[in-house]
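ok so I'm stuck.
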Amino acid sequence: MEKNEMTEKSEMNETIENKAKENVVINDFDFSLIADFFKRVERQGPGGEWETRLATSLIPDFKRKIRIADMGCGKGSQTFVLADEYDAEIDAVDLLPEMMEGIRKKIQANGLEDCVHPVQASMDELPFRKESYDLIWAEGSIFIIGYEKGLSYWREFLKPGGFIAVTECSWLGNKRPENMGWIQDNLPEIDSIEQKIHQMAEVGYEPYAHFILPETCWTENYYAPMQPAMEAFLKDHPGDPKAQVFIDRLKEEIAYYEANRDCFGYVFYIGRKV
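replied:
not stuck anymore, here's the structure
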């Protein structure tokens, strides 16, 4: 290889590396910044009360008091739906103290101290006994530790025959976005619905049911309330470049979803431990 060609190749690689460093995704920000924004909104991911209730309706009636672990519960949008649907002891798990504070306020406001218990812990280092839960729930959170890893690890804490219900980003058909860069950076584990069901089976579950969350779970329930929260967040962080970049990335995410909502979305996957 000629020397000039080697120099050009080296410069090209350096340019690519610099571009990669500039492409910051939401999960790259420190926890305090993430928590300070998401404590301002009721929902920390796409979803809806109707969809949570639909998922519970697809699981056979336990006909007894059960134990539930709600992984990555956030401020508990789905937690309190589960408390309404089931006679259950619910451990609401989240790593961020701001989310724990939010869910504690809701527990007190709803008089649910006896059945909903906040647990500040990482989803991949759980302080629970093995095979102690009848149902494990995770809306918009399993991506944090990985779909297959989460299903496999959490299975240890399910009783034999117990159920798991998670939402995971998936392709909705064969169409793909023209610009795949955002997907590669933000949703590296995205796959077809068929493959997600296969992965669930591979780690020890009987795939039981699944359904696609409607676009309103993103646009109306998740993104719309973000708009006033963004303004308040920036007012509380005047001149902070990290805060501005964080909001810019959220706006990029919203615009990307709006442009490609027919390509991908959240799917509820329900499985039974075998």
